Amino acid sequence: MPVLMDHKPYGQTGEGTEMEIPAADVGLISGGIRSEEHKKLAQEMRKKCKILISLGSCACFGGVPALANQFSTEELLEKVFRDSVTTEKNGLPHEQIAALTDRVYAVHEVVKVDAVIDAFTKGADGVLICGCHLGDCHYQEGNYKTEKRADAIKLMLADFGIEEERFRLEWVSAAEGARFGQVVREFTEQVRKLGVSPYRS
Asked: Which of 8, 92, 109, 116 has the most CB within a 10 Å radius?
């Protein structure tokens, strides 16, 4: 199949007993890694997909679930299943539940994902990355890391024979819908003027 999206690894109705991932040109992972089952899924998709993309904050940085990394797994389980004021104290669940990893991981911490340079060498005409404004993000450090990587990417593009104008990093908050649209239109027009990528022309 050309794109692997919303595939049910145990069958569309959950009838399977073993995880099955078909071969695909492109796979999208939109969540972080919090259990051994998540980890296995990411590894299987890496094996079966020619291109593997992390989609969204949770997949790229851990997202809101990664706030749980401030606590141990034992502390979290005790709080959720025993110490919550709305929960009757009982045993911890263990049957038919995948073991949790020691913390929440971004996808790229578990498997290799295909990022900006991979996109260009595979023929993308342009790459636009948007993130929260610096100092105004729930994920604290992710956009600062992205800024440093973006500077490195710009230095590498010339070595690949790719115009720097084909890559853009822009800070746009979730409340700036109009500005996001403007940025996308501007970048699309800019890439259109540059023409098709030298890797597919």
From this structure: 116
CB of 138 closer than 8 Å to CB of 173: no
Fold of 1-70+100-114: Rossmann fold (3.40.50)
Which residue is listed with tokens 């089952």? 37
3-class DSSP state of 126: coil
The pTM for the full model equals: 0.59
Q: Which residues of 145-159 are buried (b: 16+ CB within 10 A; e: fewer)?
A: ebeeebeebeeebee
Dist CA 49 CA 58 (whole Å): 20
pLDDT 10s digits, 11-40: 777 787 888 888 887 788 888 999 999 999
Segments making up each domain of the chain, as ranges = 1-70+100-114, 115-201
